[in-house]
UniProtKB/TrEMBL annotation:
Protein family membership: Belongs to the anoctamin family.
Primary localization: membrane
Compositional bias segments (type: Basic and acidic residues): 43-53
Polar residues composition bias: residue spans: 17-39
Name the UniProt record assigns to this protein: Anoctamin
Cross-referenced Pfam families: Anoct_dimer, Anoctamin
Membrane topology: Multi-pass membrane protein
Keywords of this entry: Cell membrane, Glycoprotein, Membrane, Transmembrane, Transmembrane helix
Sequence ranges assigned to domain Anoctamin dimerisation in this UniProt record: 55-272
Organism of this sequence: Takifugu rubripes
Length: 912
């Protein structure tokens, strides 16, 4: 067979494709019989062959895949590769048609259109065990819910929500094709399945002649890497803003844009069945998970907002803040310097505003919300398992794991195999890698040493940020005491050295995080490629673990420092602890008398909000600008000359790691709202607003700005499920420690119940009780403020200063050692952690035990389908045997045969 080229005037000889009489085509084209020859080019109407066309020039054969290339200085070598590769594609049954570069809008790019005929599709559907319908689902759908009318504003039309009828399905078998519900061979396999099959062939087809048995020289990925082809992609079926003018095009892209990808649809449900049909199960699972996560965030956001409102409404009951802000108490308490030399003495009343702000997040509701989020995480994960199980059944992904392992081998793995071994499970001889023990251990050691090296680099950067905080605090304290901002009416009291240090350090930390992310992504891919994983699933899981370890340290290190280390190891006046020893002169930071919780909140808000805003800008604006710039030349072309494949060629590539980055972004956000949520109850609300936008941004860019990805199957969210489970367990521990050690909740309760001098259940006198006394005359010269650093009100009559700790006063026989109250508070903190963890874990495990992973109706449907597959296959075989015996009886002259009564196969008990 000779391929059709797009250059007019060439003599074209073409063999029409084999297939059924039911062809998708234009009415003005005549169908030719199998094996017939067609002389000369067909009459092509340029206006009809417009940008909407997804068919060959004959208007009948659908374009399942497109390859593009540009001739360059190394053209002869690449041309030879293309010639051999395309000939090998034809040998396996694919049909090709070339659009010459003279027909393209840039005059340089040639396009090879690929069509998979029925014979090829049926063969590889059998190989890949693709499930197809054999019977209409006869189980009644009892989905009526009480007050169903309330969800009417959020629904989409049924033809969008459920684009296909519900069928029972079974793996396709080419030899039994009449067993399945095949109305039209050309439309039986949807475009997503067709492009998946074609890509499977492209990934394994050699670009060398048969006499060159180099296994490494095969696959479209290598041809793209060496520049033989510039792109390989399936086509979108229409423009996204209008339907296709071709009635044979489904225009599903337009439907997705109209009902899913526009921001004003943010309150509507997602058409997941249509997403799965158009993009494949892997992308469908991601949007199903993202939508479910967003729905569950609504409940966490409501409870978090209520806790925040509670803190706001109990403003007037905040006795300790009243004492700090009181001229009689806070105005008379002189505090010790917060840094050496450059910091002077200060009065407690200057922290009045931060104390009030801290109360918004540090109150009794904080404990309740930390416990609630521990239970919410469990409910989210358990209900997602049920939702995922339902999708697995509805999308024919049950028992998919074995198929993924056996049939979804990576071409990069196959080309490296040099030995054959019997698979004990399948009892088939298969290719394996010839890995020696030393080679395997050497590569594994190199990979993980690289991971450890980069994680160490992040920790070094975090230590650098901490050193920055320690170094600049003294500078801010010295500069801001006479700063004009101190006299501003509203914001003046809010701009403190602590706030300036915290905000600038958080911003620097965020910039470092973004830079390291870009660098490590390439390193992680390089390491994973070097390991040569066997399957796509294994590849993604290995890459997921490496990237998440890095991102976990990268994003959360600064929050862990503020939550669990800042203010915990500072010593006391006259015996301070320094970060790198006394020679460094970097004294460890102290917490504000209002507590470190407000600083953790600041850190969390800056990193979390900054990441989300930057991520949305990067995801939406960058692809749009690139497409706008790349297609600027084509804007002057008439529609009829700017073809569908040229439009898609100008779009951005949705790479192999496209979904990986989306999952990673959401899982990092999940960590922010679970690991540190006790410090900021509004975190779920911010995440909810972001995710409402995220769903539409992701769908918009996928539908409008990217080429159509190759459809892929996935039965779950993969390794991310285990990561989420691990973070759910860790979140209980971190929130318990935040409430105990970062918040002032436990010291206040111990004071109220055990140390209140009047025996009353209130917080009067708490501030005075929580501050220890130091004799100024005992300050070493290295810690004393320099001349001119002390405020105007400081004089020689002030002999003592206060600091945040529980130590005996000067003159006591145990002066400057911890009091018994300190040990009582420490015991109470440890007891709280143990009790909270046990309570939350018991509730988590009980909830997980109570909620089955697979809904009962889904389990019944799976059993029903397995039963019907065996029953219908039995009936099918019996009927075929009868027909065969009837034909044999007609051919012979012996007496008619009496057919035996053939019993049905017994159905296995586990299927019932």
């Amino acid at each position: 067979m000779r391929r059709v080229t797009g250059k007019s005037g060439d003599s074209l000889i073409e063999m029409s494709p084999s297939g059924s009489d039911d062809m998708n085509g234009y009415n003005n084209h005549e169908s030719s019989g199998t094996g017939s020859l067609q002389q000369g080019p067909p009459e092509i109407d340029k206006q009809q062959h417009s940008k909407d066309s997804v068919f060959f020039r004959d208007g009948r054969r659908r374009v399942d895949f497109v390859l593009s290339y540009v001739d360059d200085k190394d053209g002869e070598r690449k041309q030879e590769r293309r010639k051999v590769y395309e000939a090998n594609l034809e040998n396996v049954g694919l049909e090709l048609e070339t659009e010459d570069k003279s027909e393209s809008e840039d005059g340089k790019t040639s396009f090879v259109k690929i069509h998979a005929p029925w014979e090829v599709l049926a063969t590889y559907a059998d190989v890949l065990k693709i499930k197809v319908p054999f019977k209409v689902n006869d189980i009644p759908d009892n989905k009526d819910t009480p007050m169903n009318w309330l969800s009417t504003p959020f629904r989409l039309p049924d033809h969008i929500m459920h684009p296909e009828p519900d069928y029972f399905t079974a793996p396709f078998n080419k030899s039994k094709s009449d067993f399945f519900l095949i109305d039209n061979q050309e439309t039986f396999f949807p475009p997503s399945t067709r492009n998946r099959i074609v890509y499977y062939i492209l990934s394994r087809c050699s670009y060398l002649k048969d006499e060159c048995p180099d296994k490494d020289k095969k696959g479209i990925k290598r041809l793209l890497n060496n520049g033989t082809y510039t792109a390989a992609f399936p086509l979108h079926d229409s423009r996204y803003w209008t339907r296709s003018r071709d009635p044979n095009c489904e225009s599903e892209r337009y439907n997705l844009y109209k009902h899913w990808a526009r921001f004003f649809c943010f309150f509507k449900e997602q058409p997941l069945d249509l997403v799965r049909k158009y993009y494949g199960e892997k992308i469908g699972i991601y949007f199903a998970w993202l939508g479910f996560y967003t729905e569950m965030l609504f409940f966490a956001a409501v409870v978090g907002t209520i806790c925040f409102i509670y803190g706001f409404l109990t403003y007037d009951d905040n006795q300790w803040s009243k004492e700090i802000c009181s001229e009689a108490i806070g105005g008379n308490i002189v505090m010790c310097p917060l840094c050496d030399k450059k910091c002077g003495y200060w009065k407690l009343i200057t922290t009045c505003n931060s104390s009030w702000q801290s109360h918004l997040f540090d109150n009794v509701a904080t404990v309740f919300f930390a416990i609630f989020m521990g239970i919410w995480v469990t409910l989210f994960l358990e209900f997602w398992k049920r939702r995922q199980a339902r999708l697995e059944y509805e999308w024919d992904l049950v028992d998919f794991e074995e198929e993924q392992q056996q049939l979804q081998l990576r071409p990069e793995y196959e080309t490296k195999c040099s030995k054959r071994k019997l698979n004990r499970i399948t009892q088939e001889v298969e290719w394996i890698l010839d890995r020696t023990t030393s080679d395997l251990m050497g590569k594994c050691l190199l990979c993980w040493l690289t991971v450890v090296l980069w994680i160490s680099l992040i920790i070094a950067c975090i230590i650098g940020v901490i050193a920055y905080r320690l170094a600049v605090y003294a500078a801010f304290a010295s500069i801001m005491k006479d700063s004009p901002t101190a006299h501003l009416q509203v914001v003046g009291p809010l701009i403190t050295p602590q706030l300036a240090t915290s905000v600038t350090a958080s911003c620097i930390n965020f910039v470092i995080i973004m830079i390291l992310n870009l660098m490590y992504e390439k390193v992680a891919i390089w390491i994973t490629d070097m390991e040569i994983p066997k399957t796509h699933l294994e590849y993604e899981n290995k890459l997921t673990v490496k990237m998440f370890l890095f991102q976990f340290v990268n994003y959360y290190s600064s929050c862990f420092y503020v939550a669990f280390f800042k203010g915990k190891f500072v010593g006391y006046p006259g015996n301070y602890i320094y970060m790198f020893g006394e020679w460094s002169k970097l004294r460890n930071e102290e917490c504000d008398p209002g507590g470190c919780l407000i600083e953790l909140t600041t850190q969390l808000v800056i990193v979390m909000t900054g990441k989300q805003v930057w991520g949305n800008i990067q995801e939406a604006l960058v692809p749009w600008l690139r497409n706008w710039w790349g297609s600027r030349k084509a804007r002057s072309h008439p529609e009829s000359l700017y073809s569908r494949w040229e439009q898609d060629y100008d779009l951005q590539v949705f790479g192999q790691l496209g979904l990986f980055q989306e999952y990673l972004e959401m899982v990092i956000q999940f960590g922010f709202i679970t690991l540190f949520v006790a410090s900021f109850p509004l975190a779920p609300l911010l995440a909810l607003f972001n995710n409402i936008i995220e769903v539409r941004v992701d769908s918009w860019k996928l539908t409008t700005q990217f080429r159509r990805p190759v459809a892929a199957k996935a039965h779950s969210i993969g390794a991310w499920q285990e990561i989420l489970n691990g973070m759910a367990i860790l979140s209980v521990v971190t929130n318990a420690f935040i409430v105990a050690f970062t918040s002032d909740m436990i010291p206040r309760l111990v004071y109220m119940y055990a140390y209140q001098p009047d025996g009353e259940m209130n917080m009067k006198g708490y501030i005075n009780n929580s501050l220890s006394v130091f004799n100024i005359s005992e300050f070493p010269e290295a810690n004393s403020p320099e001349d001119g650093e002390n405020p105007f009100w400081f004089n020689s009559s002030i002999t003592t200063c206060r600091y945040r700790d529980y130590r005996y006063p000067p003159g006591h026989q145990k002066q400057y050692t911890h009091t018994m109250q300190f040990w009582h508070i420490l015991a109470a903190k440890l007891a709280f952690i143990i009790i909270m963890e046990h309570v939350v874990f018991l509730v988590k495990f009980f909830v997980a035990w109570m909620i089955p992973d697979v809904p009962s109706d889904v389990r019944a449907r799976i059993k029903r389908e397995r039963y019907l597959v065996q029953e219908y296959l039995h009936d099918y075989e019996v009927e075929r045997l009868k027909n065969q015996l009837s034909q044999n009886a007609n051919d012979c002259t012996c007496a008619p045969m009496i057919y035996p009564s053939l019993p049905k196969h017994e159905v296995l008990s586990e299927c019932l």
